[in-house]
Amino acid sequence: MEEDKGQDAKATSAVGDLRKSWQTWAEDHIEYQRKNPFSSDDRLASKPAHTHRGDPTYGRPPEGSRTEQRGKDAHSHVGREVEELCMIIRRIGEVGEDGHVSVTFGQLFETYVTISNKVVGILLRARKHGLVHFEGEMLWQGKDDDVVITLLQ
Known about the structure:
- It is built from 4 helices and 4 strands.
- By secondary structure, the chain is of the alpha+beta class.
């Protein structure tokens, strides 16, 4: 008889834990849907005010989200590619009179394209961060093979 009471208490406890877990998930989901600008559920009373330019959270994923983590991972991956590009420029380039290492786009393209097909995008990112300098907005294979790329750091 006492064993039956113990088993009933365990079963009730397990069902109660499951119920609490489900309720917590449901409440979290409702809160998430309140913040979701694409949710069409009219039952959710409060829609958040949309952020505007100048707001620190404008154009940013929610903190701690998987989207934020993917962005951080992509940023570090591109950073490593920029470092690798600079290392290759140092290796194949020639030191000029000003002490900076320079290489032509054609030579860099032929060397780097075997590593990555994103050489122009990585060059643009490196220029944005002040690591390299070259003339023009964009570099085109063939047309801009003689453009000099200078490593600034």
